[in-house]
Amino acid sequence: MIGIIFGPPGSGKGTQAAKIEDAFHLKHLSTGDILRHEVAEGTPVGKEAARIMAAGDLVPDELIVDIVRRRLPEAEAGAGVLLDGFPRTLRQAQALDRMLADEGHHVEFVVALDVPEDELVERILRRARVEGRSDDTKEAIAERMHEYHKLTQAVLDHYRRQDVRVEKVSGMGTPDDVFERIRRAIGISSP
What's the distance, Cα to Cα, between the start and end of the chain in Å? Predict the structure, then answer.
């Protein structure tokens, strides 16, 4: 089973990805976690990513695709994979489709967490105060939200055109409430 979870910053995506991973025995493959690990380890990929991120730029599609290409086979060994943070662009989605097709797989579901923007801003500002992050200003958050929605919509439309189950799920309420909505939306029960 191959699934994708989308959610803007502050939507609770990390919390829900962990719940999905535990309940359905899917390997959670987070490109953000992988990038942070590569940077911490000082690998060639990590050094390149660190340089790009320090300049405030997005890591290019080719680098992210390469990272996923290297990690996907080990993740596919179990019951399946839940991708988090990938694909973010249409080019990444097309590259993922080719990688999966080479192995006889395809994306089976996409969950897109939906939280009103004013709530997302409040969550991120609250998290920024707790973590002492001065770069999370209302203006910076608004720009990230705009960019997220612009890029994500193209990916969601891409999978809808392929008849992949794309489920928009409310990210409001307790983590357990949100997870129950996700479980019902994707129509699978815990193994």
Answer: 13
Is residue 87 in a domain?
yes
DSSP states of 55-103? TTPPPPHHHHHHHHHHHHHHHTTSS-EEEES---SHHHHHHHHHHHHHT
Alpha-carbon distance of 143 to 131, in angstroms, equals 20
User: Would residue 191 count as lying in a domain?
Assistant: no
Query: For the chain, how many helices (H) and strands (E)?
Result: 8, 5
pTM confidence score: 0.87
* Sole residue written with tokens 């794309």: 166
Query: What pLDDT shows up at residue 91?
Result: 94
Assign residue 124 the CATH number of its domain: 3.40.50.300
Under 8 Å between Cβ of 159 and 106? no
Query: What is the per-residue pLDDT across 15-65, written as a single tens digit (0 to 9) for each?
Result: 999 999 999 889 999 988 888 888 889 999 889 888 887 776 778 889 889
- So which residues are the catalytic ones? 13, 88, 127, 133, 144
- Residues sharing a CB contact under 8 Å with residue 18, sequence separation 6 or more, in sequence order: 28
Structural domain harbouring 86: 2-181
Q: Residue 64's closest CA among 33, 18, 31?
A: 31
CB neighbour list of residue 42: distance below 8 Å, 6 or more residues apart: none
